[in-house]
Fold each of these.
Amino acid sequence: MNFRPMAHLFANALEGFFFGSGKAHVVTGVALIILAGLAMSLWRMDRRLRRLESEQHDPKA
Amino acid sequence: MTSGFRSTLQTAAAVTRMEWRLEWRQGHQLAAVALFAVASVYVAFQSADRQTATGAWTAMLWLVYLFSGFTAIGRLFDRERTANRRYLQWTVDPLGLMLGKLGHAILTTTALTALVLGTFILFLGWPEGLESAGHPWWLMGGAWLGGLSMTTTLVFVTAVASQVQAGGGALGAVLGLPLLLPQLILATRLTRGALDGTPVAMLGEMPLFLAALSTGTSVIACILFPYIWRA
Amino acid sequence: MSSWNSLWKWGSVALLAYVIVRGFSTPLQPGLVESSPSRLAPGKHALTLQAVGQPFAEPDAESADFSLILRSGKELVRTDITAITPHSVEADVIIPEAVPSPAMDAFLFTPEAGTLFLGNAFFVEDAAVGPLPADLRAEAPTEVAPDLGFSFPYQPTIVESIRNLLWHVPMWFAMFFVMGIGFVASLAQLRTGLVKWDLRAEAAVRTGLVFGILGLATGSLWARFTWGAWWVSDPQLNGALVTVLLYSGYRVLRAALGEDERVGRIAAVYNVFAFVMLVILLMVLPRYTESLHPGKDGNPGFNSYDLDNSLRAVFYPAVIGWGALCYWMYTLRLRMNRVEHHLLTR
């Protein structure tokens, strides 16, 4: 893929803002961090629930 | 099957008749709704002072209509919550009961339309710049149909809300208001069109949608009501 | 079994990571935005065409490689390109006293990016209708169909915000999906009266509501960009708002019923009703009324874009990823409900 920053044709204010200034990478990074945080918290919940479920199914508790 | 359906219809007719007779006998409840409607119209009249744009006129009309409808339908299942509920539960076919309540809602809507629209025009007159409505019959029909789709939806919502022991009335409003948005949007557009005299061809589909919505909600209510009733 | 159980969960996260990276780093195909002035009288004029889109190859800036041609009716009008700036293409054009049609389209032929088209670029005022003089006519250059690589299609007014397609639409799909699960669970509850179905319905509505709110938020953002307002009165938007309020009502109803033993049945009745209203409000009514929202006479939402392969290659993973993530959240809520129910009834 050809991916050159801000060559001079067709580069208007909008994409100068989004791609040219590198903000697209910031947006990608933030979205990935949010996704990772969400996935981690879901996974932790999943593990905790598994523990609770096994406790409930064990008559020992 | 046929005789079962016939007895359901007979039950429905009996329930409607009973509801209506009880309304007359306990006149204060009917009077309360009428008083509410007329008082709201009068407040609207006082604040608008006979100079209202079509938009504001329509908005006030439907606000008055909406809350009068809430007061009228909101206590429709109050009687069934108390002592005679158990007796009715054994003796009355739930579908018949629901159809009866819907029949009562149609009567209420008709009375309410006449009352609200009548007093509204009496006090506020027509919107600024209009001698009369562009299509008077469409205005009346639209108000009635809009009111009908409003009350049929409210009948079901009230049936659900009346199952809650305390605070059923407030719950009815919470559940009912969002549900009434589409009907109200259609009804207000239809009213504005009828006032402005928009060509009938452009208004034509709105009554159809309103009728479809009220039929739809009535049918769902009839299917689901037995489940609430026997709960 | 257990490995599959964690595989699909992390798979959904990986898919979404792919969607985020691809969705934000894929360049947009170039396109023409608008022409200024937008109305011209006969005579010689300087014309400026705004353009967007990332460049795909180093342009050598030789304006001889580009040609801008206008179309009036079926005839082509010649222009002279005077400058190519980072934001636009500038050209001189002579508008004759008579044109075949007052509405003029613009074509910009470029060697790297192919032909860029702007329909009804401007209107000719105060000109008669007639054939063009021969000296103003242009020959159509031979079109090139360059390989633009992996890039998203250019859509007028949507432009860069087309990336929101990967968020907004799959979120509503995910919401439909879990609300559908809730609907089926509520039907089963009404048939059997078993608590396990009620736990499912509650979990489904709770999860679906989150995605419904996210769908509203992303939609509102999109509306701001394309229609210029955070919210407009439109059948599809009204339906979406009513649907979210309706399902909030479900939660209010459950809270109001509290410990009542009939809560399962009454909530199920309400949920069935809510889902029927969802189908009517979001899938039936908007198709029969005028709507700004795309897709009203076809598949909801992405009708006009789904021909593009590069967008598809990200959109389908997005649908699967959001759907699976939503289902994961639903199962977590369901298991939580089960644990809670177990504790309360022991």
Note: Chain C has two domains: 31-136, 159-345.
Amino acid sequence: MKRSKMMELGVGLFMLAGILGLVFLGLRVSGLTFQASGDTFRLEANFANIGGLKPRARVTMAGVTVGRVSAIELDTDWYDARVILELDGDLEGRLSRDTTAAILTAGLLGEQYIGITVGGDPETLADGDTIRDTQSAVVLEELIQQFLSNMISD
Amino acid sequence: MISRIAHLGRRGCELLEALGRAGIFMAQSAIGVPSREGWYLWLRQMHFVGVLSLAIVLVSGLFIGMVLALQGYTILVDFGAEQALGQMVALSLLRELAPVVAALLFAGRAGSALTAEIGLMKATEQLTSMEMIGVDPLRRVVAPRLWAGFVALPLLTIGFSVVGVYGGYLVGVEWLGVFEGSYWGNMQASVDFVGDIGNGMVKSLVFAVVVTWIAVFQGYDLVPTSEGISRATTRTVVYSSLAVLGLDFVLTAMMFGGLS
Amino acid sequence: MFDNFSPPLLLTLKRVDQPMSDTPFVVVEDLHFSRGDKEIFRGVDLTIQRGRITAIMGPSGTGKTTLLKLIGGQLSPDAGRVLIDGEDVHRQSRRALFAMRRRMGMLFQSGALFSDLSVFENVAFPLRVHTDLPQAMIRDLVLMKLEAVGLRGARSLMPSELSGGMARRVALARAMALDPELILYDEPFVGQDPISMGVLVQLIKRLNEALGLTSIVVSHDIKETLTIADYVYVIADGEVMAHGTPQSLDVDQDPRVSQFVHGEPDGPVPFHYPAVDFTTDILNAGGGR
């Protein structure tokens, strides 16, 4: 019967290792973080063109990651893109009303993210508010076209 | 000419019959509440099928992770994008290589062993005598092995991924000098738990069902001679491999292809 | 040879209620069975008497093992019936068949011991499946059965450690574990050395007598089988070719029976595989094969 105890132990360890491996994958490899649901607040921002921005893209302030893009939808009232942001709860009520959100690119060809910059307005944004001042993504074709038309007009 | 068509037709019918037998076999074996003794039988099979496959799966995972990092680095460095090595290694492993390669290795090692074992039990009439005593061999012999395969392969896949990512770390960071922070950081930023790890595990589960089913059925259905056993083990490995690769394409298209 | 056979032990196991009269225990009626295109049995009738050893013999390949499987309910006939103690084997519900299997034991050609269980566990297996006896009782029963076949000391060995003859004896102990009324022996004498052969033959005879069993022995070993059989059926070409006591078969005039019983190399079953005339073949030196 000792043989079966060893076997049970072995299989148990095997399964435990599997579960721990999954945890490792979750945390270290996919960067899963534990965030209680009360810890984030929602803001909306409309952009004329979101470029290559994807859901779950980062939201940064001064380069520090402060949240994620949770959803991107088409705004049927204004026919532009409405982006839903989930930001750290610590920032709730700390961002001014004239905070700007811009779609930036990491590096030259990297992934796109949103960078927010605080303004000076004494009034602040609350959960569910909309960021008014936005800067759309830079679309390469439009840039080239602008450059060319500038050159022609010179 | 006509006889050729007739021959093809007969082969087609035989194939359908075999498929039907396999389906009924699966339904009769997998469905049913296991008894207390069944628990212990499952445990034994988990050991033979899972624990004993660990060595080959983990070693292969390590080497594949290391090779991925090596090859990936040489390609990425031309674009100045070697910081993306972590995410390249992780995504390749989690989405494709871990589920597929672990399943292929499993088919070769555990699958063929299952086929041979059940085939031998059939050839030495152990299955028949079990039935004569009044025990259903499907419940006592086949079901524990099926369920062991279903559980063991996904666990082995997880192990493969973990070791592969670590192997990539060893080569990329320790040897080739990729910055450690970017290896893990970029990886964490781009690997989605549900989308990548989750889908990889779904693939692994599908493969587990298919490979174990093929292995066990081939053993149960074979001609009970030594030649029959050897033919059946070959069939297990070949059919399992083809099934895994084919299903991989279908699943990848469903999970990662169509929708963006 | 069997002075240490412990007769008292066996007598306690003897079923007192079994009448030793000539009543049929197993009846096979007009059995038809085909596997694929090959017709294996066409109209086989057998009557197996209770308490007797009945041998079923015939040239190899006539499907004798298949017959045992048909009797045991593992295969279903295309036509005809098999009755065991008056009940149609193939019309039973699952539970009834399970109960019926408790009264039967089967000894396979290769022993068919479960390779992952020890000798003790193998013999205990049917007891565990069919009864709820406590561990201590099971242990006692297993040891008694092993003692009856002379292998009590081998109880902890694994099947891979046993010789062929020993494996068969353990399989016999297992087949006897539930004190069945019917035992089916599938080619028990194949490939045995003289000593094991002698042991097995005696065991079959003694157990049959002492326990009032009905035994069906399928074999093509004339010499051994005819020494213990009470009645013999010879099956060839899917039918019963002859039947009778060993003595009557020995003097049977039918050339097919005679060739089989006396082991003559040539007769109705020819020695030469069909071929062209020998002289023609040899003289065809230049004309290819």
Note: Strands of chain C lie at 24-35, 38-49, 53-57, 79-84, 87-88, 104-107, 182-186, 214-219, 231-236, 239-244.
Amino acid sequence: MKNEPKKSSNVPYIIIGVVLIAVLGVVALGTGLIGAGWWISNKSQQTANSANRPANSTAAARTPQAPVNAPPGAQPPNLLGSPTASVTVEEFADFQCGSCAAAHPAMKEIQQVYGSRIKFIFRNYPLAIPAHAKAYDAAVAVEAAGMQDRNKFWALQDQLFVNQAAWSPPSANHRQLWLDYATKIGLDTARFQSDMAGIAAKTRVDQDLARGKALGVNSTPSIYINNQPVPFPDVNVQSLRRIIDAELQRAASAPANTGTGTNTK
Amino acid sequence: MPVLKIIAIAAALAGLADSVYLTIHHYTAEPVPCSIISGCETVLTSEYAEIGGVPLAALGAAAYFAAFSLALLATFGNRTAWTLFGVQSIIMAAVTSWLLYLQASVIGAFCQFCLISAITSFTLLIVYIISMLLQRKKAI
């Protein structure tokens, strides 16, 4: 009789032990700490496979009609490459968006790889959500930098994405940090501050926003290649190169159609 | 009473499963685009998602595991465990309230899996309060 309660009193500890082992096992497998390298690699393989999809299938998945009625956005646009290139890559991004910062190196690589063979346009698209309370001002800041020198736009844009984790949290003194970045890239900080407060930079941001809204942009980063949206899973160097190469090839084989990449409709 | 403890065990296990999922997600999530319909990514990638480098979700999993263990021990007759469960459920509900405040006021976004955790956490406290009330009734 005395043994029975003892036996039963062990039961909860056994159950606790089993649950603990199960939890640790699931966490270890799920995070790839043990044995589940195959699961993680399978997942990456799937991502890679989606990246390896032929450009045509991507093209097929894209919205067929070009947004002809969309306003042109800020003019002149923040542009890299050649304004007359047959392929236009247009990025809508938000400086407080983690995925935009994550995509930034890929966008830079695309700019470097293709150079003047493409027209790369950056559009400000600060999302009006409480978590991105600094995004609109950040967009105004890069436009203010661009008002001093177009190259400074790209330099500050780079700084804001690279240092996003530092200035983006609610507790960070973002204005001071932006001034530090402005100094670092050689901006006239007095003029930078006055341009940030002025109407011109804000107008440019609003113009980009209006274009994005007309195109139906509701998330960032949103990439358009020759006015066709690129699905988010394809926002990586490999997939973007595949799509751009296909568009370049298409433009080369049909010279009459060149110029479709204009984003200033 | 055993029914209440079984409910507590079930709620703790649900919270544990949710926290384990969030912990795994914390380490393995693929980036998703930022959306005007703000969601989990905002919450799960906020500066509040970690405390001293430890994901909040992992701390939650540890808390739910402790709650599960205490409720289980209590079901097998350990009264001290049930008292400890009560103390823990109060602390967990307080932390949950703070996290809900952060999501609503500071981060400005809610995460559905964090809300599931909030429900399970409050369930633990409610179960404990009901068990105390029933105990008092019995005593009277």
Note: Residues 79-107 of chain B form the longest helix (29 residues).
